[in-house]
Design brief:
Layout (H helix, E strand, L loop, with lengths): L4 E6 L5 E5 L15 E5 L3 H11 L4 E4 L1 E3 L2 H12 L2 E2 L4 E3 L6 E7 L2 E7 L13 H4 L2 E7 L5 H4 L2 H10 L3 E5 L12 H4 L4 E2 L3 H8 L4 H8 L5 E5 L5 E5 L2 E5 L12 H14 L4 H14 L13 H5 L7
Helix pairs in contact: 1-9, 7-8, 9-10
């Protein structure tokens, strides 16, 4: 039987308050002015989920938020983008997470209040929920601390039920990058950026990192920012340059890349075609402020993807 959802995202829930301006914060009660302030849908996991739904995948989401304005905002924004949030755990009295982002040119600084982000556990994803989907994606590994210990067994359980799995760790604030040997063996698609891949493997460049990571997981795609991306599966390698677009905001570009890559993966596309779609999705998402407003539809992005493959 065809399950009702293509994709289940287990992730963090927090809006982004995006401040834009050529300033740097300073203590000592120094007030500085920014050019704009926007409250928008945030979290790597939610941005990924919305990007996948925008491409036409049937997406469900599980995470934890509070019964507060930020939680209500996030649920409404995801529902408006056709992400099913019926599995979200709403905890009265708890605090939904929040990220404050200062954009300056192509760089950004991020301050995050975790709130309930760390409280999702592997036990919250029961087998009945997993049977409703084809694929399980986890992002923000280092923020979801209660999920970490049970994640290898969760991915193994997902495989037994016929699901494929993907992981985007995001950055490790501790810089230790521990505990991945067992986990990566249970990951079908690993989606780090260049700095994360190099830090995790102890190599000096993306190609060497990809080669090493592909020995542990089935497929690895490494985001290279303005240089595009590289992907490796067994002995096969693909590399695709970024699109030339007028960049307004890079928030969520990597998550939208992930959405495109998982779309191609679930549809059985070739490695190069999948990577071209992912790079185009990530590039096009930078045209507007925030992580979701410029996410492309499938029709829009396919103009940049070769029909070959």
């Amino acid at each position: 039987m065809n399950p009702p959802f293509d994709l289940l995202v287990a992730g963090e829930i927090n809006p982004d308050l995006i401040l834009t301006g050529d300033v740097e914060p300073a203590f000592g009660q120094v007030e500085k002015l920014v050019d704009s302030a926007v409250l928008t849908l945030g979290s790597s996991s939610a941005i990924f989920a919305c990007g996948a739904a925008r491409l036409g995948l049937r997406v469900a989401f599980i995470g934890v938020c509070g019964n507060d304005p930020f939680g209500s905002f996030m649920l409404a924004e995801m529902n408006a983008r056709r992400v099913d949030t019926s599995g979200v755990l709403v905890r009265p009295g708890g605090q939904t997470g929040l990220s404050v982002i200062l954009n300056r040119d192509s760089d950004r600084a991020i301050l995050t209040c975790s709130g309930l982000i760390p409280t999702l556990t592997a036990a919250d994803l029961n087998d009945n929920l997993l049977r409703q989907v084809r694929h399980l994606h986890v992002a923000s590994y280092f923020l979801q601390t209660s999920l970490q210990a049970g994640l290898p067994d969760l991915f193994a359980r997902a495989h037994v039920l016929g699901l494929t799995t993907s992981l985007d760790t995001n950055w490790d604030p501790s810089g230790e990058w521990r505990g991945f040997d067992e986990l990566l063996q249970k990951v079908d698609v690993f989606l780090p950026n260049e700095k994360e891949a190099i830090a995790l493997t102890g190599t000096k460049e993306a190609e060497a990192a990809g080669q090493r990571l592909s020995q542990s997981c089935r497929l690895v795609a490494i985001k290279l920012g303005v240089e595009g991306a590289i992907a490796r599966r067994a002995g096969e390698t693909a590399r695709v340059p970024a699109l030339k677009v007028e960049v307004v905001d890079t928030v969520g570009a990597g998550d939208t890349f992930d959405a495109g890559f998982i779309y191609g993966f679930l549809n059985g596309w070739s490695l190069e075609k999948t990577l071209r779609l992912a790079v185009a999705c990530g590039s096009l998402s930078t045209r507007r402020l925030g992580g979701t407003d410029a996410q492309p539809t499938l029709d829009e992005v396919m103009r940049y993807v070769s029909p070959a493959g």
